[in-house]
Amino acid sequence: MSGLLNMASLADFEPLAAVIPATKVEITVSCRNLLDRDTFSKSDPICVLYTQTVANREWREFGRTEVIDNTLNPDFVHKFILDYFFEERQNLRFDLYDLDSKSENLSKHDFLGQMCCTLGEVVGSQGSRMERSLNNIDWASSVIHNVPSYFRGIPGKNCGTIIVKAEELGNCRSVLMQFCGNKLDKKDFFGKSDPFLVFYRSNKDGTFTICHKTEVVKNTLDPVWQAFKIPVRALCNGDYDRAIKIEVYDWDRDGGHDYIGEFSTSYRELSKGHSQFTVWEVSHSHFPHVYFTHFCLKYHKHLLKISYTQINFTVAIDFTASNGNPSQPTSLHYMSPYHLNAYALALRAVGEIIQDYDSDKLFPALGFGAKLPPDGRISHEFPLNGNPENPYCSGIEGVLEAYYQSLKSVRLYGPTYFSPVINHVARYASLVKDGSEYFILLIISDGVISDMAQTKESIVNASSLPMSIIIVGVGPAEFDEMIELDGDEVRISSRGRFAERDIVQFVPFRDYIDRRGNHILSMARLAKDVLAEIPDQFLQYVRSRGIKPQHSSHSSSSKPPPALVHPVHPLQTQI
Questions:
Q1: Which tens digit of pLDDT belongs to each residue from 21-62?
Q2: Region Disordered: what ranges (predicted)?
Q3: Which of 213, 212, 177 is nearest to 294 (CA)?
């Protein structure tokens, strides 16, 4: 099914080896309707971000936001800057606390709620904006997440929601700015206003993200705020015409700050203040003079711009007899009650990364090389869930369940044909060539390919389509033919035609098995290698077509119809 993937754009065609390690995203956190844990005022929330190591699944504190006094609806200004890897599962945990003292020890403060997700889920959400409910932590989850019992929430309480936004970092210049105001509105009964400014940058979906707050200047209608330095990326992420909204408030001790007014500008307009005063009107006043006193130029390479691409992920599993009898422990399809077999491990390793970029978590799952009930027809393209009109499985767990059920109902046979499942995905990819969708086919197989000539032709044809193929070889075979399909050394060809680009990535699963039996490490290593080339392959496709990055607000995609195959092709190939 289709999902959302933030991919490289056409702005800078850097080698992917340089692009992937350097990609950084900025995480912004807001909350709504938090628990009120204070008796005489509202909570004073802070957000703590934890990341999880792959090796031992240990949660480590990454950073903390500032504390915002007396509010249940905080928009935190402090950002978390994370390295983003498409090919890795990066687990995140956001914990919210009500600070009761200046102690750094979180056990001294009231727990407000928690949310766990992956960085891929945030990046892959519509507009790279994800909103979820905050959860209480019971004793069991405290143990699972290595969270001490004193961090537990209040059972049965609605903890509110957390909003997490991701934006890839672009231009890293910094600019020093200063603002002042003149004749602002008087909001306090016994004195003048206590004004401060809040800066927001606009998002592509029409919303705004807070990026800076000034200090409060007490008891004046003609404030002069301190000069501050801010990265250009925080204001506009390199888009000099991107709208910047500045709101003016009168500070109140109870957190109910009075709104004075607002104005909009852009970085391009602000930059004119370097040589002249710029004046904006707020409400019924003229405000403020804006000027730059210094530019701090500090660059790094601009690597990516975000464009939004729908991901269609399809799984194809080898059901040929060479895998061995599934009821025997020697079979590659053996369903052990104690651990996953190689097929299931490979499927989970790749699928759990891809599903983060899928909004509905529905995947078509196919099998090939089996005799199907009730008449024993051989098929090289059958739905694992048994429903040719709707072959989609719910999440990777649904794919695994359908895989296990198929092992109980079909008879492993042969031969090993790759071309039918490649052609199946290619038919859908041929319908959408504008870069708005990209198709990924995962084939898991154990050995010799019986239709090598047809498979080469299918790959050459598919190389001009928005499509990539991942092949994972399981078992002890040599996999010479699969290595040839990879095309890293010699570009694959068929009937004198060469593939337009390399779209196949092959790896033998045995090379990733952890010697200590740590399946989590095995899956992480496998996923990292097989998925690392996907952004580059996508980039090669859009570059060769001159396709501009998609910056729409995620209108519904033209996803394939639920039928398994195009009507002009038979569902099951008979031998």
A1: 347 889 999 999 999 887 778 999 999 999 997 767 889 999
A2: 548-575
A3: 177
